[in-house]
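Quick note —
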Amino acid sequence: MRTHVWDVRNFVEDLSTYPQVQEIITSFKRGEIIAIPTETVYGLAADATNAASVTQIFKAKGRPQDNPLIVHIHSTQQLEHFTHNIHSAAYQLMEQFWPGPISFIVPVKEGVLATNVTAGLRTVAVRMPSDKVAHKIIEMTDMLLAAPSANTSGKPSPTKAEHVIHDMDGKIYGVVQGEQVSVGIESTVIDCSNYPFRIARPGAITKEDLERVVPGCISDEVIHNDKPIAPGMKYRHYAPDSPLELIQSIHKVTLNDNEAFIAPLSVQHEVQGGHFVKLGQSFEDVSGAMHDLYDALRTADAIDGITKIYIADFTSIQNSEALMNRINKAVTRK
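Predicted structure written out below.
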């Protein structure tokens, strides 16, 4: 299969003016699998009501079949077609944070979505992306698009079209090439099946952000479930091929030529030898570190002859929970 690449970088503000936009829309309606940029990571999108298309997502990624997918929408009006009994507090949070990098797990109606989207659960995770290209594609197709990250399962998620092409060339029908994504890690996922809600996966939108809108809406209960209710809960994620080690103290670090260090630019002067890869401007620049993380992991892993990668620890930094969630999973390969 030849993977088509549609470069829309000059049409981000109004995708409808892109000369081949109808080809993209028609391909989705035909059931094809196409990677699209979102503000979090690039997503591997297909018709969420087409079981055969969804099966091809799992096949292309090498993704376990019990790992549910997130459905992407362009309007809250679409929710009534495939969900029901959504808690009023969830609607308040949707109104505040959509479009944006947050997904809500809500009760799903039977018989609308392909059953492999939900992995047989009675709930579904739903998101409305703020990325202009993604939002316009969903609006123009007026479809429900299932879209996990567009990478080989277990590897760092793609934040550039080049990452998608590296993992998916020849496996999927097409890639919509936009700019590097703005957020850089996957969406916050909130389990809204019971109140108070629980965070199933941390992301750029934090518990503090949510509770400023609805005080007390998030429980501190940790979700323990052998059957994942959201992506990123059970299987190996985000890991490069090279061994990765977390470093807590960065002071006069000396590397061998076959080693790399991923850390904030502000500490580059402490690292001698080897290869330095930027992870944000400083330790306080958590959003910059999230933006850089997956590209940094891929960049370090691609260095010729690399045998070991080190990465800085942000644990003590405020609002670093989502960043450290991804780093720890990459380090432990869990």
